[in-house]
Amino acid sequence: MPIHATFDDVPPNPGLRARSGVGWSPCDERWGERRVVYHNAGHGFRTQWGIAAFGDAGGRYDDIADAPLSGGDRAKVARIRQEKRLNDCLR
Fold first, then answer.
1. Cα angle vertex 36, ends 41, 27, to 5°?
2. Spatial CA neighbour of 38 closest among 84, 7, 82
3. Per-residue pLDDT of the chain (91 residues; tens, 9 = 90+)
4. With contact defined as beta carbons under 8 Å apart, do 46 and 89 qualify?
5. 3-state secondary structure of 23
6. pTM score, two decimals?
7. Other C-beta atoms within 10 Å of 41: how many?
């Protein structure tokens, strides 16, 4: 996956899709949007879904806290977290 991914590049979580019978849920969408921000900042993923969505190569930062985010990216992540709380997402 290119370093500057978009939300359209991220596949739905296969485990959630199998349980729900649909593709993206609102919680999946927030997960994907937030992870795109982190991926584009150089974060490497370790979860099965993160690796399936973004691969496990090319990540410069193992810890999300180390990935440098611009002010705009930090604001976007904060907005996404707020939307996750409003949608009662558990992740």
1. 140
2. 7
3. 445 565 556 655 554 444 444 556 778 788 888 888 998 898 888 888 788 878 777 788 888 888 899 999 999 999 998 988 888 886 5
4. no
5. coil
6. 0.70
7. 19
